[in-house]
Q: What sequence folds into this?
């Protein structure tokens, strides 16, 4: 089976590009040729080494002769329809872009998670109001483009998502449930994460982008309600960092919260070693939430909100503790409990590491993905 990936970029820009590269490298090592059709004007040479052939011209299809296309981030609806009509096609849905006007899948007013299909709710909740370009501060975007993008996938034979929440998101938008497969994305780096001894330090760790959707502000509001001695480290950067620093001062927790900014991935083990737990306070419904799996692999329990794909891997009272969406009081109670009961935190952490070894192995991910791609090839319908 020859697999041609279709994606906008060709470099190590983010999580989507990393998982794509891991798939290509892993399947290539299994003797399955990989190609990449991209639109990157400055592709990274080190990135392209995972592919037997690559380029920006669709003539690549004739040269590479794929048995199946694996679409990743492709915004041109006409191109999706055209490609899917030529070669058996699967689509790996990494985020909410396909079905959400705002791409965040939570409402701009109230910030509650949206569980509605693209349509009237996009207007009644003002999701059609967008950031403006040029001189105008705001712009407007209708649901027509989203509807066209969904319709363009009529010939796509399989949809690959990371969680039950993402499966349900596609089905409520009219995509056929029988074509959707849940395959949690597991990067090769997860296999190199080692379980660490429990830490009894009252240290809470957040790792990730500091943007509004990741909910660091919700974490700070929860921390302001946590009694006793504790310290929190926020590892990461983003356009919400300065706002969160100001909020920490306002809530009088700045002396207990360290914002590290960006940290090289290789240095993260030291932060996990000191922490007794990690927190995933996401406001947006995580398509999967790989950062939580990375913490669990290191033997750290996770406290988080029950949004998106998080409940698929964060089992309440087993691998950590789940709080209702955006409920900072409940999040504070869970953090307080694990801080007060370090033995329980260690127990959850050990169970979390076992869960990752059992369910989230890079080789098993490639097995599942290959099976779904073969389904797309074999599905004559």
A:
């Amino acid at each position: 089976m020859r697999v041609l990936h279709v994606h906008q970029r060709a470099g190590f820009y983010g999580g989507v590009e990393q998982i794509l590269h891991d798939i290509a490298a892993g399947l290539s090592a299994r003797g399955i040729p990989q190609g990449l059709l991209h639109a990157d004007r400055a592709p990274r040479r080190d990135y392209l080494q995972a592919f037997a052939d690559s380029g920006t011209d669709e003539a690549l299809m004739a040269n590479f002769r794929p048995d199946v296309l694996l679409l990743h981030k492709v915004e041109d609806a006409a191109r999706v329809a055209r490609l899917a009509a030529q070669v058996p096609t699967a689509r790996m849905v990494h985020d909410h872009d396909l079905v959400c006007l705002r791409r965040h899948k939570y409402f701009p007013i109230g910030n509650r998670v949206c569980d509605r299909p693209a349509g009237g709710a996009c207007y009644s909740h003002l999701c059609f109001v967008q950031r403006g370009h040029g001189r105008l501060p705001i712009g407007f975007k209708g649901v027509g483009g989203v509807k066209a993008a969904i319709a363009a996938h009529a010939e796509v034979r399989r949809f690959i998502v990371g969680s039950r929440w993402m499966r349900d998101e596609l089905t409520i938008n009219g995509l056929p449930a029988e074509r959707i497969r849940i395959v949690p994305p597991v990067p090769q780096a997860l296999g190199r994460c080692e379980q660490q001894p429990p830490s009894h330090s009252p240290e809470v760790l957040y790792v990730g982008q500091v943007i509004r959707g990741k909910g660091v502000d919700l974490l700070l509001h929860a921390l302001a309600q946590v009694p006793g001695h504790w310290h929190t480290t926020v590892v990461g950067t983003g356009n919400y960092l300065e706002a969160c620093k100001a909020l920490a001062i306002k809530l009088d927790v700045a002396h207990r919260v360290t914002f590290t900014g960006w940290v090289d991935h290789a240095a993260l083990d030291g932060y996990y070693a000191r922490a007794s737990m990690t927190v995933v306070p996401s406001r947006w419904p995580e398509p999967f939430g790989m950062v939580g799996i990375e913490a669990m692999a290191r033997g750290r329990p996770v406290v988080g909100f029950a949004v998106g794909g998080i409940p698929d891997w964060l089992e309440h009272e087993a691998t950590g503790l789940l709080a209702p969406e955006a409920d900072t009081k409940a999040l504070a109670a869970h953090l307080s409990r694990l801080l007060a009961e370090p033995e329980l935190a260690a127990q959850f952490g050990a169970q979390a590491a076992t869960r990752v070894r059992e369910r989230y192995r890079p080789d098993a991910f490639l097995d599942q993905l290959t099976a779904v791609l073969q389904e797309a090839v074999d599905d004559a319908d």
Observations:
- Residues 161 and 338 are 32 Å apart (CA to CA).
